[in-house]
Structures are given as C-alpha cells and as structure tokens.
Amino acid sequence: MAEAHQAVAFQFTVTPEGVDFRLSREALKHIYLAGINSWKKRLIRIKNGFLRGVYPGSPTSWLVVVMTTVGSSYCNMDISLGLVGYIQKCLPQGYSPQESPQTRELLSMAIFSTGVWMTGIFFFRQTLKLLLSYHGWMFEMHGQTSHFTKIWVYLESVRPLLDDEEYYRMEMLAKEFQEKTAPRLQKYLVFKSWWATNYVSDWWEEYIYLRGRSPLMVNSNYYVMDLVLIKNTDVQAARLGNIIHAMIMYRRKLDREEIKPVMALGIVPMCSYQMERMFNTTRIPGKETDVLQHLSESRHVAVYHNGRFFKVWLYEGSRLLKPRDLEMQFQRILDDPSPPQPGEEKLAALTAGGRMEWAQARQAFFSSGKNKAALEAIERAAFFVALDEESYQYDPEDEASLSLYGKALLHGNCYNRWFDKSFTLISFKNGQLGLNTEHSWADAPIIGHLWEFALGTDSFHLGYTETGHCLGKPNSALAPPLRLQWDIPKQCQAVIESSYKVAKALADDVELYCFQFLSFGKGLIKKCRTSPDAFVQIALQLAHFRDRGKFCLTYEASMTRMFREGRTETVRSCTSESTAFVQAMMEGSHMKPDLQDLFRKAAEKHQNMYRLAMTGAGIDRHLFCLYVVSKYLGVSSPFLAEVLAEPWRLSTSQIPQSQIRMFDPDQYPHHLGAGGGFGPVADDGYGVSYMIAGENMIFFHVSSKFSSSETNAQRFGNHIRQALLDIANLFQLPKADS
C-alpha cells in the first residue's frame, strides 16, 4: 500500500551487480524532525525535573545568594562566620598555574552559597509540607481519628439500616475485631505508610479494578456527555478535527508540566498524579489480573467506523496536524466504502465481555503475525476514536433523547467501543461527541479536566467556517489513514460472538434515565444555608425511601487528592440524621420549623462527613486495606468479611464542573455539558450521578437493571424530582415547572 511505503526510510534490492539502496529523502526528513521533536521534549522534561527538584528555589535565587556572599566579602563582611575560610582550607590544592587565591576564594563562596541555598530549600519544603498537611481549615474542630473512632463511625453508619438484634451482633463483631485482630493488621499498614507513597491507592487499583473478571462495559467504565444546549457544527469530521487537535495540545501541556493543579476550595493544590496515564494507556487483559500499559509517547489514534479499524497519524514529521488536516483524514475514513474483513466488525466485543475469555483469546489468536501488529496499533494509540453512523443529541422537547444519548455512550452496540483504552472518543453523525472512559487509571474529575479544556478550546479558540468546517486549508498530499489488517480464524470468531452475546445481554438489561432539573440550582439552594451536594444527597435519601420503602447503604465518592497519589474515599450518606429527617417528612405531621431543623442537622452531618473523607479520616479505604492485609496474613476476620460484603444499593457521585475557567459561565450560560453517568453497582440497586450545572439547573443520570423487579430508573428519577421540590418548599424557595 502506498501509505505503508511512506513510513520506510530506505529500501534495497539485491541485483547481480550487488545491493541497490534507494533512500527516501522525505521519509528521512520526517525521521529527523521526529528525532528533533523527541529531544526537545526530553530537554523540557530535564529542565522541569531540575526546577521541580529545587522547588521552591530557582536558579535566580541561587544567583542572588552567591552575589550576596561575594558582595559582602568585597565590603569586608564575613556573613559565613568563617565557613568560607574553612572551606577554602579544605579544598584540594590545584595543579594549574593559573589557579589564584582569588579563584579558590570565589569557589569557596560558591560552595558556601550553594549549601545555604539548599538548606533554605529544605526548610521551605518542610514548612510547605506541614502547611499542606494541615486540614483544620476545613473544620471548626478537627483532630486525629483513632481506630476506635473509625470503628464507632462505621457502626454509626449502619445503625439506621439494622434492627436491634442485627446491630448488637455487628457491635460484638466490631469489638472482637478491635481488641484482637485490628492491632496486628494495623502495624503492617503503618509500616506500608512509611514505605509507600500512598498506603491505599496501589491496592485499590489492583483489587478493585484490575483483578475484576466481569465485563468492563457497564460494570466499570463510565461515560461523559458533550455540550447539550449549544452546537458548534453539524459536520462530524470537522468536530473531530478540532477536538482531537485540542486534546493533543492538552497532552503537550501535560508532557511539559504546564497544567496548573486544581485547587481544593481554591486554597490547597490537589495531586495531579492520575493525569500521567490519561493518554497512551491501555488495559491489557490477563487470566487472573489485568495490567495497565502506559507508553511515554504515541503519535497516532486508532479509529473504528462501519466495522473497520484504521490508524490515523497525528503528526507530519514533528508538526502536529492542524484541525483542517485532521478533518480531511476522518472524512477519508467516512467516505471509504470498503467492507469489514471476516471477524473484524465485532472484534471489539472481546473488550466488552468477560476478562478471562478476552485474555485467553488474546494469547491464542493475537500473539503473532498481522493480528498482533493490528492489535498493537490499537493498544499503542494515544486513544480510541469511534465514528458512529447514528445521530444522538439532547432535545428539550423530547425527554427520552438524553437517556438514549447516554445509553449510546455507556455501551453503544457492544462492539463499536474499545473498552480497554483509557478513553474512547465517540463521534455521532450529527457532530455530537462523548466519551467512554476506563476507570482503573483515574477517576472522573481527571477526564473531566481534559474534556473541559477540549470543549473550551473548540468553542473559543479554534472555531469553524460558516459552513461548519475547520478553519484553514487541508494538505491533500498527506497519506490517507492506514487500514488495519486482520486474519481472524473461525475459532476466534466464535469467541467474539460469545463475548458479544454476554455484552448484549448486559447492555439490554440496563435502564438509564437522564433528565434536566430546571426548577432551581445551586443559586437558590444556598439560600437554605447548606451545601448543594448535601441538599441533593438528602433529597436522594427521601426519594429512595419513597421508591423502596426502606433505607439502604449509600455510597458517595469523595476525592482524597489532597494527599499524594490519593484517589477516593466513601461518604456514607445514609446517616441517622438524614433518616430522621426522611421519617419526619413521611409522617406528615411535623411543623415546617421542626423539619427545617432536622434537615439542617442532616446537612451539617453530611458536610462534616465529606470533609472527613477528603482529609483522610474516612473509614472505608482503611477497612479495605486492613482486609487486604488480613488476606495476605491468612487471618480470618468475620467483621471485615461482613463489611466488605455489604452491597451499595444506592451508589452516587457528583460530577465536577468548571475545573478550568476557560470562559465566563455568566456570559456564556449555555456552554454546559450534561455531566455523565455509570451503571448500577448492585443488581437490585441504583446508580445516580448528578451535575449541579450553574445557578439554575441540575442534570441527573439514574441507572438500574430491568431484570430487578424492585427498581425502575424512571420511577426513581421522578421521586428525585419530587423530593427536591418538597425540600425546597420547606424553605419556600421560588420554583418554576421542571
């Protein structure tokens, strides 16, 4: 193929006269430019590594210290208190005749100044570390949380869910664990905390994500929606050209360490470690555990369209392709009429089915030849791109449109997403986009940061022509995208079909109900003198009780990125205070002031628990790590076994927004995404994600399973609507029809 030859720098032919070499100047030029680009990146990383190593010092501050020392010497002042003279005596005698006493004195002053500079850096760093370790600013009163306290907090969290007999049994198990097993297990955790950067995150990634053998689709991966209230273009290839160009610009900033950290409440920087594996990352299936493969560089994306796989280069030599060039490349794929090869169309269903089956198939059928080369092109890509022939978008006049859009992002047709890639960029025929994201490498706020940058760059920096195309003129001399070649035998096709059936049954069982709540947003919620998150979480408790007639263990994810390599902690939102409020609401006999008081107590409790989780004083990750240690030691703990087996029948998450202020939301109120969602964690439970979008609206994504007779996503969504309105009515907040 013509495009394949362009990647070859030279060719040779054996003739009777000898070996005839034919060099390609164009290919050599691209190799040279790629090398220059690679070395530029290395030098930038070396420079950043040096500056990071001496932070908060700098070469300028070192020069200031040296000049101060030298200047004081010329003023006959010895600020070193004799240390410069001592260093000068200790210097070995030089053999150069040019070496003078003045040279030795200057060298001694430089050594002394460097020592002072490094000592200052050390003390500054320790002071900064102490300041960042202090989390009391989040509390009026806060102290260290003991093991006894954490166990008591756990018992308090399950009290509303257990009757007296069950609670007494759990109390006895907890007491036995506290007195006999916990001290021994805790010693190992303390030792790990001394040795490891983070005592939770590596085990969390391995045991919660990578060792899972069930399908990633629905069970682990989550989706993110596009802007839903405005549309920049209807041209599918053009939208991709701008967004992918913006994403690679973001990756360049990431490589150069130019992205500012997100600040917790605008005060403390949060750890950015999770961003390192955003690009060039794939989850490789294994029989017992998966592995995350991360590459330092990738110069292409893998693309799926109409059952065919393609490889699209992002660079020409060292130059990033312009949006108009990328648009041309994707349009070439859309215009390509070639049919899929045997077994190619549903190949990605392997990533949607069981992990064991995929690992076995990968080893048996993709370990050599063209299958291995084609699979490597996908797994070594910067990310995966899916070009869909269907159109989805939110239509405010059609409530079901948002849910159908979410379903398409969550699982598609079960074989048009590569669920192992760090993320799949999904492009619909009408130019609407979305993401399907693998969960093990990072949590939702990380991909949200990239998505905000890409959407903001697309809307406010790159732009489109009047006809909806990318700006500029395309370079028609670019080689077309490379079609990946496969040789998939019948046995492998049978495995693909089996994985597809598993994935299809899972996808068909998911009920997703997405809706926009327009009656009010965070602006009016704040008039209740409570946090918007606490308001929504208490509304969820009220809605769930109305839906199921009982309370359940509730999970809300909280970030722990104020700690190095921190990920998440659990906020147990079903508290004694929230259940007291819900029961009072259900009784219908309480006066408004009493209900307001109960609500405020529940909200205050929730906010305090959220702060505890953010500052490392949560209980679930600690109990999880104690459980891992017990398994390593072969220690049986009925208490830990019961804690880890409890089902989260209501799993919730708030989606962050405006992590990057690329525009003024007051000036552009319709530049809003609808957030994203995930599948239900329990077969008889609900998954709820929500985004408090601006001052006047909230987006909800509610999931459940059709196979459960106890759950119904739309019914629960309607209960959520009503619960929000009923709580607002307690405070007489003005409302509009939703």
End-to-end C-alpha gap? 57 Å
Radius of gyration: 30 Å
**Sheet with the most strands?**
8 strands, mixed
Q: Kindly report the spatial arrangement of strands forming the biggest sheet.
A: 15-9-8-12-13-14-3-20
- Poorly predicted ranges (pLDDT <50, ≥5 residues)? 1-16, 140-144
- State the secondary-structure class: alpha+beta
Number of strands: 22
Mean pLDDT, to the nearest integer, reads: 87
Beta content: 5-15%
Number of helices: 22
Descriptive account of the structure:
This protein has 738 residues and is of the alpha+beta class. The protein has 22 helices and 22 strands. Helix 4 packs across helix 5, helix 9 (236-255) packs across helix 10 (323-335) and helix 17 packs across helix 18 (576-587). The chain starts with a helix and ends in an 8-residue tail after the last helix. Mean pLDDT is 87; it is low at 1-16 and 140-144.
